[in-house]
Every structure is written in C-alpha cells, then in structure tokens.
C-alpha cells in the first residue's frame, strides 16, 4: 500500500513505508508552474526503425546541486524538496523533467516527418532518505520495499493507455552521468518497444527449441564457469558474450514475464540476491563501482510472450583506474569490444562473496 499526495505543480507523489512507519507529508509550498504533460515528441528514424524522444525541457533539470540543496532529500518545510516530508522510506513521483508524459495512443510509424506526442510516463524512485547511502547498503526489509514499489508501479504503468513497456532502472555514479547523488532510480513507461527489447524478441522468436532465455539460463548453469551466485529461486551470472567490463545478469529460476508474476518468496529472494551482487560490486575496488541496473520486464502479450524477466547490471569500470568508454565502434556501429574475459570477471565476483 502507498500514500498519495499531490505536489505543488499537480504531479503525483507516492510514499511506500516499512511496517510500523507512517508517512507525514506536509504541504508542498514551492512556487512551481503547473505541470503540463505532453511537451515532448517522438520522432521515427527510418534508417534504423527506432524511435527517438525529443524532450527539450530536460535541459532545465537539476544538475549536481550541493548536498544541502538536494531535491530528493526530505523537505520538512515544504519549500525545498520534491519530497515534502520530514522523512520517508521509499517514494515515487512523476519526473518534473520527463522524456515522456501523458496518456494517449501507442506510437505508430507516421508518414513523412510528422512528430508524434511523447506519450508515456517517467517516474523517479528514491530508495531511501539517506543522501549518502546506496541500494547495496539497504537492510533486507528496506530492499524488499523498493522491489515492492517497483512491482506496484509496473502494474500501474502497464495499465496506462498507450504504455507498451515498463522499464525500472538505476544509474549510479558520476562516471555513468548521474547528476543527482542521492540514491535513486527511474521508472519509464514507453509508448513503444525499446530497440533492445525488439531485437531480443526477434531472436527469441527465431530460436529453435524451448524459450531462448530459459535455454540460455540452463546452459549457463550447466557450464558453471560464469555463475556468480545461485539460490533455489534465482541465478546470477556473467553472460557468455558480456559487452561491459563488469556485467551480471540475474534470472529467476522459473519463467515469469515481470515482477508482478513473482511469488512472495521469490520477491524476498530477488531482493537478497540483488543486494548481494551490488555489495560484491562495491568490494571490487577501493571506491564504489559505478553501474547501470536494467530490469527487463514484459507484458503478457503475443508480441512479448517469450520475454523472460531478468536484471542486467553493468559497469564501465574496467580496472581500478580505467573506464571503458563507448567510442566509435560501440556508439556508431553498435559493435562492442570488451577488454576483459567474462570467466575472469565471474571468478573475481565469486571470490568477493
């Protein structure tokens, strides 16, 4: 269950609380202009068959504020923060500077160069009120609360008109491009299938045998060289063709489409193994590892019926002192070249248990 309040500009904010905690929101008294959905555009790139969101308003988003001006920390006065409250456990709110916003029809390829409305929804999820914390440091009940919030918002956004795909993700670290240091992630409701999903679904449809992802998981378990951690319900491994210097995929051991399909026991175990992998990441070097976390979720539709829920965790750090930059081969040609051997990374992470 969540507690809903309305921010000064009309956006929705939801409090998710641990047992025994009751949120105490105050009135948001910031002098904000009304939030107007639908200010972005979608444009179709005919050379790649991919959609591009044009969201000029994002140029005005908050950029690396000092800690005492962080808009994600609690704002007990109602004048300083996106979270008008003296404290909170987990909150989710509509992004003030969204790439996509507003209800409408799913994106369809237009004639000529006509832009389409940037239908969809972008939300921010704050994992904790602790500005200096991280997901890896969350106690088990708190990590599970974040998972519950992801699950709640996945269900809500999947039911929103025009939303074709729900994507929960986190970017951590300035090296990744993070502009707000407070531990948080985002949740996007796209009005189209993302290119990565479209490619994976095409590969799954062409696969001979059972489900592509289930077969890959079984093969990784049988091989064993790239397994990092395994429980009765989940398996974490470095993929055979890892693109990133540090890359770990987490799969449930049974086929499900999304977080909504997981049982209570599976949700508990998912939160545990997710935190476990993040803690291993932070033990790799003397400083916390910058990473991206991507929750691949699928609606139970004919187009996405082969989609197997899983998480992909990736870092651009290839050594204690060097980063992997996505230069011309990766960025222009989507031809990844990795500098490390996946089996060696898996062994390193196993040793950090």
Write the layout of secondary structure elements.
Layout: E1 2-6, E2 12-16, E3 41-45, E4 50-54, E5 90-94, E6 116-117, E7 120-126, H1 140-158, E8 165-172, E9 184-190, H2 195-206, H3 212-223, E10 227-230, E11 234-237, E12 246-252, H4 264-282, E13 291-296, E14 310-315, H5 328-333, H6 342-351
Antiparallel strand pairs: 1-2, 2-5, 3-4, 3-6, 5-7, 7-9, 8-9, 8-13, 10-11, 11-12, 12-14, 13-14
Helix pairs in contact: 1-4
Keywords: Carbohydrate metabolism, Galactose metabolism, Metal-binding, Nucleotidyltransferase, Transferase, Zinc
Family: Belongs to the galactose-1-phosphate uridylyltransferase type 1 family.
Pathway: Carbohydrate metabolism; galactose metabolism
Explain this structure:
It catalyses: alpha-D-galactose 1-phosphate + UDP-alpha-D-glucose = alpha-D-glucose 1-phosphate + UDP-alpha-D-galactose. It comes from Mycobacterium paraterrae. Keywords: Carbohydrate metabolism, Galactose metabolism, Metal-binding, Nucleotidyltransferase, Transferase, Zinc. Pathway: Carbohydrate metabolism; galactose metabolism. Residues 40-193 form the Galactose-1-phosphate uridyl transferase N-terminal domain. The chain is of the alpha+beta class. It is built from 6 helices and 14 strands. Strands 1-2-5-7-9-8-13-14-12-11-10 form an 11-stranded antiparallel sheet, with helices on both faces. A 3-stranded antiparallel sheet has the order 4-3-6, with no helix packed on it. Helix 1 (140-158) crosses helix 4. The longest helix has 19 residues, at 140-158. The protein is globular and about 60 Å long. It starts with a strand and ends with a helix. The model has no long low-confidence stretch (mean pLDDT 97).
